[in-house]
Amino acid sequence: MRLELMVNGRQRVVDVAADATLLEVLRENLHLTGAKNGCQEGTCGACTVLLGGRAVRACRIPAARAAGQEVTTIEGLSPWEKEIYAWAFTAAGAVQCGFCTPGMVMEAKALLDRQPDPDEGAIRQALKPHLCRCTGYQKIVAAVRLAARALRGEVKLRAGEAAGMGRAFYRPDAPAKVRGEAVFVDDMHLPGMLYGAVFRLPCARAKVKSIDVSAARVQPGVVAVLTAADIPGQRYQGHIFKDWPALVAPGEETRYAGDALALVAARSSREARAALDYIKVDYEELTPLTSPEAALAPGAPALHPKGNLLSQTVVRKGDPEAALKSCAHVITNTYTTPFTEHAFLEPESALAVPEAGGLTVYTGTQGVYEIHTQLVSLLNLPPERVRVVNRCVGGGFGGKEDLSVQHHAALLAMATGKPVKLTWTRGESILCHPKRHAMTITMTTGCDAAGNLVALVADIVADTGAYASLGAQVLERACTHATGPYRIPHVSICGRAVYTNNPPAGAFRGFGVPQSNFAMESQMNLLAVATGLSPWQIRWQNALEPGDTLGTRQVVSADIGLKETLLAVREAFESSPRAGIACGFKNVGLGVGTRDVGRANLVVTGGRVQIYSGAACMGQGLEAVLIQIVAEATGLPATLIDCTLSDTALTPDAGCTTASRQSLFTGEAVRRAAADLAAVLQGHTLADLEGQVFRGEFYGATDPINSSKEHPLTHVGYSYATQVAILDEAGRVAKVVAAYDVGRAINPLNLEGQIEGGIVMGLGYALTEDFPLAEGIPVRQALGRLGLLRSHQVPAMEVHLIEKGGTAYAYGAKGIGELATIPTAAAVAGAYYRRDGKLRLSLPLTGTPYGRREK
Predict the structure, then answer these.
(1) 751-793 residue pLDDT tens
(2) How far apart are CA 694 and CA 610, in angstroms?
(3) Rounded to whole angstroms, how far apart are CA atoms 453 and 328?
(4) Torsion over CA: 180, 184, 186, 187 (sign)
(5) Which of 359, 363, 418 is CA-nearest to residue 192?
(6) Cβ-count burial of 209 within 10 angstroms (0-12 exposed, 13-18 middle, 19+ buried)?
(7) Contact at 8 Å (CB) between 163 and 631?
(8) pLDDT tens digits, 503-539
(9) In 10 A of CB 571, how many CB atoms?
(10) Burial of 683 by CB count in 10 Å (0-12 exposed, 13-18 middle, 19+ buried)?
């Protein structure tokens, strides 16, 4: 069908399919990629454009309907509008991953064109069609108000603070993200590029007897169809455990509904997906194991050669069984938490490009070197012939650590000799990538008559799903943090991670700790009632202090700021009888004896300093952090400092962006390299140092969990936090007050944004987000059905940053990306417990105005 459209003031003529959407035409035909493809269901708002001056979701608008109307995309804004919105969103700290931002800007333009001075309520209502998983919305609302003032001429555009420690230095990546110019992988187009698609079975467990791809190979546009026999290297891969097949072979069983059996490459995405219908598989559907109890039952089929128990973790200190007998008050309960979907706004995408006998893979991952290692093994290529490059990463939260699309795009590219892009639909993303672990936690906690904790015994069972991912490590953190940040002399914690036929479970913001924190903090509320203490007081008198020991027997260091966080929120907690409180803590770095290294190179070139590091930024602002550290160490202005991240051909391996580690580990590596540069700069200019390279490395040595040392060092550092959730009279969360021990704040504006986003994610976990399964298959495979909170549902948030100096590394910075979410659900649960006296033992919470009813 030939279609004439007026786009950004230009008449455009395109040939499209009769059922093409406006978004498809804009992105695939006109290559206007500022409108993002986040959901294909009109739910996320990332594809927002103006149609006749009205904001619409382009993924839901038939292209033919746009004929005769003016279409305006983010690219079509005037230079002055682009400058204002880029400045306002940057200055307000409203940009993190940036995937949702252009859509937000177009919604803001539509609002401000018709209402130049809207109040906060009007802005939140206007943004109602949009999702943001990073920021928590509060700073986006502030950005729209700031843009409105600038458009009215009431405020001048100003620069951020100079780079350096503790300054609101503007993120250098933000303006391009606001203008829709930042490149995500699915925005990329290359001449002759093919499109990939993946065949899967409609059940969670099946015996594959045969796969016939002959009919698919002759379908229109199809260039290649691959099965397991076409893999040149090691077929089984995995982040840590190599238990996940890139393609399931005949004679094997599928272990979950996301398992891939065949791959198609075709000249268009439509042709690739159409060809999937012609792949014929003879299989026997088997009864799936959908719970740890079923998987551990006698006679249960083994899902993996080693059986159904992935791992077991034991943490022990003192003699808790005997100590419980001496306690004045003992509380025992069993808590359950659900699987949860990450719901990052950018679906997984990879573009694999054959080059000079090797391959370059463009993707959006939390660890380019982890992906590189697995691709080298899978493709059976020398490491130097495989390059992995990150484009912008549209959110991750732990969900982009595993292989997802990279290996399949790479296999197709190597087989065809052509570039191949493979992008999951939102439904595929929800079906396939690892989730937050569902856990069952039985906990017994005892204290003396005065409310001092004496002993804790806990049993934790984690459903790790079909494959290991990082399940063993997640279980470790759930166990080592189950004590909460409290002084407990006697501890016994046993955890098991169990394989099932459910979707794999892996890393998710908090890494197992939100689950055990919910249990422990609920126990604290019950002990407070038993002893007659207030929830604040029982936490205060049991809060860890320097010299105390954790459950792992590590000695608490002098930089702990837990009590300071409690003091910061005390007034807020005591202001309302409907306030709940929770504390939390989280390790910084991989720890527990795992080798953990941050690396960076500083190269002087062209009178400038170029930072190179393999660390990934997925929206947390790492580029700004590293520039600020170099500026602090050298005195150089940010205008002379550039940063290149996540390219295995250019940047040194700095480890995966996980465990809140990059600000400390890679930040310290950068500081060391910058200190060397600063020493040489004495009496010299950058021009004198042209071509010199300054290398920095930081290795954070730690001990295993069950080290024989009396006081092992299980982690290099810890961050601590306290949150207060306050309900209104109707029982809705009206405000969250949060205090965070951050060591030293490199960029307070960015830190606030990280914490606010984490709080909102925690509110969803507490109140609205669930992930039900039926026979191992997600019931809700649409973004709009996941219970994600929107701007009009989010309470006011007040953040306090506590700076006690931190560790000796990276100027004292301690990561808080994971900790941001950890105490929220427990604080909200505590608020409802104080409101109605009902103990809620599962998440999301029942009996609240947010919709979930008690079973």
Answers:
(1) 999 999 999 999 999 999 999 999 999 999 999 999 999 999 9
(2) 10
(3) 10
(4) positive
(5) 418
(6) exposed
(7) yes
(8) 999 999 999 999 999 999 999 999 999 999 999 999 9
(9) 10
(10) exposed
CA-based torsion, 248, 253, 254, 255: positive or negative: negative
Q: What is the pLDDT of residues 97-110, one digit of tens each?
A: 999 999 999 999 99
Helix 748-767 / helix 138-151 crossing angle, nearest 10 deg: 130
Q: How far lies 362's CA from each of 349, 356, 371, in Å?
A: 8, 16, 11
3-state secondary structure of 310: strand
Task: Count CA atoms closer than 13 A to 9's CA, side-chain side.
Answer: 5
Using DSSP, state whether 332 is helix, strand or coil. strand
Task: State how beta strands 349-355 and 48-51 pair.
Answer: unpaired
Average pLDDT over the chain, rounded to an integer? 97
- Alpha helix stretches (DSSP H) within 638-714: 662-681
Cβ neighbours around 105 below 10 Å, total: 30
Structure tokens that stand for 125 in this block = 């209502």
Per-residue b or e along 138-170, where b marks 16 or more CB atoms closer than 10 Å to that residue's CB: bbbbbbbbbbbbbbeeebeeeebeebbbbbebb
Instruction: State how far the Cα of 816 lies from the Cα of 375, in Å rounded to an integer.
Output: 31
Report the number of secondary-structure helices (H) and strands (E) in the chain.
21, 32
Mean pLDDT of 110-118: 98
Asked if residue 652 has pLDDT above 50, the reply is: yes
d(C-alpha 559, C-alpha 808), whole Å: 10
Tokens (6 digits) for 235: 């077929």
Burial of 827 (0-12, 13-18, 19+ CB in 10 A): buried
As given in the structure block, the two tokens for residue 105 are 């800007």
Around Cβ 810, how many Cβ atoms within 10 Å?
A: 31
User: Would you state the pLDDT for residue 522?
Assistant: 98
The widest CA-to-CA distance across the chain, in whole angstroms, is 82
What is the Cα–Cα distance from 397 to 363, expressed in whole angstroms? Answer: 16
Which H/E stretch holds residue 735?
Answer: strand 733-741
| Kind plus residue range of the DSSP H or E element containing 431 | helix 426-432
Sign for the CA dihedral angle at 64, 65, 68, 74 comes to negative
Please enumerate in sequence order all residues whose Cβ is within 8 A of that of 22, keeping only pairs 6 or more positions apart, or say none: 49, 51, 56, 58, 59, 61, 62, 63, 65, 66, 71
In the numeric block, the tokens 């301690």 are attached to: 814
Which of these, 659, 723, 656, 318, lies nearest to 513 by C-alpha position?
Answer: 659
Sequence-distant (6+) residues with CB within 8 A of 639 are none
Query: What is the mean predicted confidence (pLDDT) over 11-21?
Result: 96
How do strand 70-72 and strand 2-7 relate by DSSP bridges?
parallel
d(CA 472, CA 617): 25
DSSP state of 20: -
DSSP for 792-837, written as a single string: GGPPEEEEEEE-S---SSGGGB---TTTTTTTHHHHHHHHHHHHH-
> Tokens for 718?
């810890």
pLDDT tens by residue, 809-851: 999 999 999 999 999 999 999 999 999 999 999 999 999 999 7
Angle formed by the axes of helices 622-634 and 662-681, nearest 10°: 30
